[in-house]
Write a structure and sequence with these properties.
- The complex is a heterodimer of chains A (295) and B (272).
- Chain A is an all-alpha fold and 295 residues long.
- Chain A contains 12 helices and 2 strands.
- In chain A, α5 crosses α7.
- Chain A is globular, with a radius of gyration of 23 Å.
- The two termini of chain A are 23 Å apart.
- In chain B, 36% of the residues lie in helices and 26% in strands.
- The chains are: A mainly alpha (295), B alpha/beta (272).
């Protein structure tokens, strides 16, 4: 169970690291002051504090696409992993092919192929669908599918590692009590593997939040596209410095929020292990690298 | 742990019976790991209420044989039946074919197994460990399973550990929960695979006490163990294995005090 205890061993930010951070930011600001560019800091402040509907929609899209894609990825990952360790060679082969293909080609290629490639040939034209009165564009659907399927390949390997980390004695004990392989997997092995999987899963979702920006190639108006459009036209045209600082702040807010959620999940899953007793770094520490000092 | 006899088994109610009193019947069992011939024709009959202790050097095949009895290992030749039912295989046109997973699982649910390393489910509490199989395999309702589970935990002296996770229990306590977990399925037979070998010396006694109690209450048991005191006290028969076959068997007194085979003598001289 030691693997499940990675929480408490997570690195803590040292005072020296903080100092370096402050110095770097100060130098950056100083450098800003020396150039002849007319800074419009209001753009940053407004984009973050008073976001318009476009930005809010971008945030919403980034978040919802990430969550749905990651869910698809986890589900595919569980099936992929169980397939990879199946007793049946064809199923093993299929799962291995899936992982090999989607990890072996660039996500950008997969996104473009799934949307334009399948669309232009008429294999699947990605018509918009209506969900509870909301229209979901073909590009968003294709983006979710591409991100989800790609993520599934990575999750397959993560879940597989999680399953393999569980003592084979667990499966034997479950079987000796009369459980079938399926039931033993579902009731005994996977719940334990989940603990092992959560920390790398956290990484994956953090990545996912940012990787959604690749959907720029199929013009999904998520966060990155929203800000680059604001840079291309409108009142904030050609203010990439301010706009992309604002975009970065939005991404940081999303990933930080996820950090909070993740530590909650890890605590819950730590039930029954010693990790539950010393539940790892506090929220603030984990999010910003700035602990309250209380340990 | 001084309970009245029959406490442990009373907690689970009536156990399955077999007509002729034979619980395990193994005939000419052969097992290969790849090219390694680990079981070379094992024959063993275990009757109801009998406690059979399997001894032998490591590599003699005793644990492998035990694992064949509930089909955790496949066998390549011979047959094993429990309560008259062929284990792991069915006969088709005179040939043995591996059974469907569901029937194997159903057979295993009648055979308890206690492992050297306990193999409790770490994500479930002591009580949940015991309730899991009755609820998930037998479809017993939760309340009934909980009632049996609580009784069993009390019988193995762990009523205070109902909601404790295995990680917070000592080895001896874990093994007692594991025995209770096996008992909850009302098995016709319990297989013990070196149940005290992974325990600190001071904890061996508490586990052996529970096993003795079970033996006294009439549970059919096959025990792979080097606990000679236990074998002498509660064993009906001691079976000595070497190089994949049973080379000698008899009552504990016969086998320990006047072994016939040289290999048995050599083995006993090493462990006694």
């Amino acid at each position: 169970m030691t693997r499940a205890r990675s929480g408490p061993q997570r690195e803590r930010t040292r005072p020296a690291t903080k100092l370096v951070g402050f110095v770097v930011i100060a130098l950056l600001l100083a450098a800003c002051g020396r150039s002849s560019y007319q800074y419009n800091w209001n753009i940053v402040v407004d984009s973050v504090i008073r976001p318009d509907r476009l930005i809010l929609y971008g945030v919403w899209l980034t978040l919802s696409i990430s969550v749905i894609s990651q869910l698809i990825g986890v589900i595919l990952g569980v099936f992929g992993a169980v397939g990879r360790i199946s007793r049946l060679a064809p199923i093993r082969g299929l799962a291995a092919f899936y992982v090999w293909f989607f990890r072996g080609t660039p996500l950008l290629v997969q996104i473009t192929f799934i949307y334009y490639g399948l669309g232009v040939t008429g294999v699947y034209g990605w018509p918009p669908i209506h969900l509870g009165g909301v229209e979901v564009s073909g590009a968003i659907q294709a983006g979710i599918v591409a991100l989800g399927v790609n993520e599934g390949a990575y999750m397959t390997e993560i879940v597989r590692a999680g399953i393999l980390a569980i003592d084979p004695g667990q499966m034997e004990a479950a079987k000796s009590l009369g459980m079938t392989y399926r039931k033993a997997m579902r009731r005994i092995v996977l719940p334990q593997a989940a603990r092992v999987i959560v920390p790398p899963l956290g990484n994956e979702f953090n990545n996912m939040l940012k990787t959604t920006s690749l959907l720029v190639v199929i013009s999904v108006p998520e966060l990155y596209v929203t800000f680059s459009r604001k840079n291309a036209s409108g009142p904030t045209v050609f203010h990439p410095f301010e706009l992309f600082i604002a975009a970065a702040i939005w991404y940081l807010l999303l990933t930080s929020l996820w950090g909070l959620v993740q530590s909650r999940i890890e605590r819950r899953l730590a039930r029954g292990t010693n990790a539950a007793v010393n539940a790892g770094p506090g929220m603030r520490e984990r999010l910003f690298g700035m602990g309250s000092g209380r340990r | 742990m001084t309970h009245a006899p029959h406490d442990l088994l009373d907690a689970v109610g009536e156990l399955p019976q077999s007509a002729d009193g034979v619980v395990v019947e193994a005939t000419d069992v052969h097992k290969y790991f790849g090219r390694l011939h680990v079981l070379r024709g094992v024959n063993l009959t275990v009757r109801k209420r009998e406690v059979v202790v399997l001894i032998g050097a490591s590599g003699s095949g005793k644990t492998t044989f035990l694992r064949c009895i509930n089909h955790l290992e496949r066998i390549q030749e011979g047959r094993i039946s429990v309560n008259g039912h062929l284990i792991g295989y069915r006969e088709e046109n005179g040939k043995l074919v591996e059974d469907k997973e569901r029937s194997i699982a159903a057979q295993r649910s009648e055979i308890g197994m206690v492992f050297q390393r306990f193999n409790l489910f770490p994500h479930l509490t002591a009580l949940e460990n015991i309730m899991e199989a009755p609820v998930q395999v037998r479809g017993v309702n939760e309340d009934a399973a909980r009632e049996v589970g609580l009784k069993l935990l009390e019988r193995v002296g762990l009523e205070a550990k109902v909601d404790t996770y295995p990680g917070q229990l000592s080895g001896g306590q874990q093994q007692r929960v594991a025995i209770a977990r096996a008992l909850a399925m009302k098995p016709a037979l319990i297989l013990f695979d070196e149940p005290t070998s992974a325990l600190d010396p001071e904890m061996i006694g508490e586990v052996l006490d529970v096993m003795k109690e079970l033996a006294v209450e009439g549970m059919t048991m096959i025990v792979v163990s080097h606990e000679m005191g236990f074998a002498r006290e509660v064993g009906d028969r001691v079976v000595m294995m070497d190089e994949g076959v049973i080379i000698e068997e008899g009552s504990p007194a016969e086998l320990f005090d006047s072994p016939r085979e040289e290999r048995t003598k050599a083995f006993l001289s090493k462990i006694l």
